[in-house]
């Protein structure tokens, strides 16, 4: 259903950065066989990431974290200096909290495990294009631990969020998609979008992961 929507609008262009040749090829096959998606490039590291992104003009980047030469987080930082709109989904084998938080701070739009099933991976790509911040459940758990264990001395500030907005922000921190939030709160998808727009405005952020980072930094939820 989702992919047909994108076909009607435009073909969703995804590129891949992964040092494992077999995995790159498998991801290319998956993307090119998924209706509404295409893979316009697959690269073994981020040594020339700015040129690769400029030449392929992707909507979404699947970014491996651990690569030789220039790794995924450094590549993400380079991307964010010149390409603010492209969505970047980080992929990793292990849920390492320092790398999770560093990726969030660097501007990642989502953080998922490499063992994510193919059908779920394509759902995450659609989710991130719709403004979500997809995270594998175990990654979301690590984010919650970061939230609970950070002891920075900050002034408690909920930024005038309503109770419903705090609830939705909390669900974003847990890695729920907009659709899942709508189901959890028994509200419509457009209502979720409206609440999240208000959250962005109050927190002075522009993406779901920026909102998650601010929630962690300021202990909002």
Describe this structure as you would to a colleague.
The protein has 221 residues and is α/β, with parallel strands linked by helices. The chain has two domains: 2-144, Rossmann fold, CATH 3.40.50; 150-217, Winged helix-like DNA-binding domain superfamily/Winged helix DNA-binding domain (Arc Repressor Mutant, subunit A), CATH 1.10.10. Helix content is 53%, strand content 13%. The protein has eleven helices and five strands; from the N terminus they run αβαβαβαβαβαααααα. It has a five-stranded parallel sheet with strand order 2-1-3-4-5, with helices on both faces. α4 (72-82) links the parallel β3 (60-64) and β4. α8 (163-173) crosses α10 and α9 (178-185) packs across α10 (189-203). The protein is globular.
Descriptive key words:
53% helix; 11 helices; Rossmann fold; five-stranded parallel beta sheet
Can you describe this structure in just a few lines?
This protein has 221 residues and is of the alpha/beta class.
Give the number of DSSP strands: 5
Quote the distance from N terminus to C terminus.
Answer: 33 Å
CATH class of the largest domain, anyone? Alpha Beta
CATH homologous superfamily of the largest domain - what is it?
Response regulator
Strand order of the largest sheet: 2-1-3-4-5
Order of H and E elements: HEHEHEHEHEHHHHHH
Shape call: globular
Low-confidence stretches: 1-8
What's the tally of helices? 11
What's the structural blueprint in terms of helices and strands?
Blueprint: H1 2-9, E1 12-17, H2 21-32, E2 37-43, H3 49-56, E3 60-64, H4 72-82, E4 87-92, H5 97-106, E5 110-113, H6 118-129, H7 137-149, H8 163-173, H9 178-185, H10 189-203, H11 208-217
């Amino acid at each position: 259903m989702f992919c047909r929507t994108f076909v009607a609008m435009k073909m969703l262009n995804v590129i891949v950065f992964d040092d494992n040749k077999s995995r790159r090829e498998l991801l290319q096959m998956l993307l090119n066989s998924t209706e509404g998606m295409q893979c316009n490039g697959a690269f073994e590291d981020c040594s020339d990431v700015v040129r690769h992104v400029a030449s392929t003009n992707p909507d979404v980047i699947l970014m491996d974290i651990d690569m030789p030469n220039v790794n995924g987080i450094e590549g993400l930082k380079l991307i964010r200096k010149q390409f603010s709109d492209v969505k970047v989904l980080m992929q990793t084998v292990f849920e390492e909290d320092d790398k999770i938080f560093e990726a969030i701070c660097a501007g990642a739009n989502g953080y998922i495990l490499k063992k994510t099933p193919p059908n779920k991976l394509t759902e995450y790509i659609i989710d991130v294009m719709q403004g979500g911040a997809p995270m594998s459940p175990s990654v979301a758990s690590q984010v919650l631990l970061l939230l609970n264990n950070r002891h920075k001395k900050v002034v408690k500030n909920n930024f005038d969020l309503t109770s419903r907005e705090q609830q939705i922000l909390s669900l974003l921190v847990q890695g729920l998609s907009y659709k899942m939030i709508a189901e959890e709160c028994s509200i419509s998808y457009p209502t979720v979008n409206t609440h999240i727009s208000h959250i962005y405005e109050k927190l002075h952020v522009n993406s779901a992961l920026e909102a998650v980072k601010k929630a962690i930094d300021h202990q909002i939820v």
